[in-house]
TrEMBL record:
Molecular functions per Gene Ontology: carbonyl reductase (NADPH) activity; L-xylulose reductase (NADPH) activity
Gene Ontology terms: biological process: glucose metabolic process; xylulose metabolic process
Subunit field text: Homotetramer.
Species of the source: Sylvietta virens (Green crombec)
UniProt cross-references to PANTHER family, sorted A to Z: D-ERYTHRULOSE REDUCTASE, D-ERYTHRULOSE REDUCTASE-RELATED
Highest taxon, organism lineage: Eukaryota
Protein name: DER reductase
Keyword Oxidoreductase attached: yes
Taxonomic lineage: Eukaryota, Metazoa, Chordata, Craniata, Vertebrata
Alphabetized UniProt keyword annotations: NADP, Oxidoreductase
A matching Pfam family: adh_short_C2
Alphabetical list of PROSITE patterns matching this protein: ADH_SHORT (PS00061)
Cross-referenced InterPro entries: L-xylulose/Carbonyl_redctase, NAD(P)-bd_dom_sf, Sc_DH/Rdtase_CS, SDR_fam
């Protein structure tokens, strides 16, 4: 993707940057001039990212490890831009939801966003610089999906957390928004939704008749990070092809 916005000289942290959307955001931000730190729990993914884009710095961390995150992210900053992309999807029928699946989802999809954002926002405030935070949510925060009880719930919680963050951080010139994609054609998305019988039921509910590509999400994130959206905070940008209007 060719960068249309400049982030030259700005420092950015992207979580879940080893694969998919997070990796593409990290590469796009670096290409647009930002100094990017990419965070993932998978060392091999970070090593391949560093080879692909040598200017990117890497952090190998499990976001559920509160103390390790506090130390490592605090030392790596300060940042002006933050993309909270890391997430897990523990898909189980409601009656079969396990405690471990619930706890892992809460730790990563909600708790880690809160924690990393606290660390980064405190640094922004201490430095006296404006900033922007984009939290990657989902259309599943707005619409119930079978076997997604925990995922839908944690993404709904993330949307509300983002609104409260926007309210409290706004006076410090820190904007907070979410992007809420439909199914995205990452490598994993193509594997999970390659069965036409499975995908047809979802696509039939999308007026544009297709799933999102990675660049659809990346472009929206870059817009919300940029000064082009200087008056936008506390919003959810739906990248769903009209799924929620059908």
């Amino acid at each position: 993707m060719e960068p249309h916005l400049s982030f030259r000289g700005r420092r950015a942290l992207v979580t879940g940057a080893g694969k998919g959307i997070g990796r593409a955001v990290a590469v796009a931000l670096s290409g647009a001039g930002a100094r990017v730190t990419a965070l993932s729990r998978t060392a091999a993914d970070l090593e391949s990212l560093a080879r692909e884009c040598p200017g990117i710095e890497t952090l190998c961390l499990d976001l559920a490890d509160w103390e390790a995150v506090e130390a490592a992210v605090g030392a790596a900053g300060p940042f002006e831009l933050l993309v909270n992309n890391a997430a897990v999807a523990e898909l189980q029928p409601f009656l079969e939801v396990t405690r471990s699946a619930l706890q892992r989802s809460l730790d990563v999809n909600f708790g880690a966003v809160l924690h990393v954002s606290q660390i980064v926002a405190r640094q922004m405030i201490a430095e006296g610089v404006p900033g922007a935070i984009v939290n990657v949510s989902s259309q599943a925060s707005k619409r119930a999906l079978r076997d997604h009880a925990v995922y839908c719930s944690t993404k709904s919680a993330l949307d509300m957390l983002s609104k409260v963050m926007a309210m409290e951080l706004g006076p410090h010139k820190i904007r907070v928004n979410t992007v809420n994609p439909t199914v995205v054609m990452t490598d994993m998305g193509r594997i999970n939704w390659s069965d036409p019988q499975k995908s047809a039921a979802m696509i039939d509910r999308i007026p544009l008749g297709k799933f999102a590509e990675v660049d659809d999400v990346v472009n929206s994130i870059l817009f919300l990070l940029s000064d082009k959206s200087a008056m936008t905070t506390g919003s959810s940008l739906m990248i769903d092809g009209g799924f929620l209007v059908s």
